[in-house]
Q: What sequence folds into this?
């Protein structure tokens, strides 16, 4: 997963209510966890931003 990729939150994690959110990776935080900063858009038309481990994200579409 790279900056610009479209992702969704992996629904098999403990936050199943986030499964409908789509987001774009806007930054990667260097280090051992390689956290991805994601700008989310979700059902209630709100926006959120947060950092997540790659294993908690599922790739929807790659930035080419």
A:
């Amino acid at each position: 997963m790279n900056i610009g990729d479209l992702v969704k939150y992996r629904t098999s994690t403990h936050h199943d209510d986030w499964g409908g959110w789509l987001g774009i990776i806007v930054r990667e935080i260097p280090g051992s966890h390689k956290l991805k900063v994601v700008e989310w858009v979700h059902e209630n038309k709100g926006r959120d931003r947060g950092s997540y481990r790659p294993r908690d994200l599922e790739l929807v579409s790659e930035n080419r």
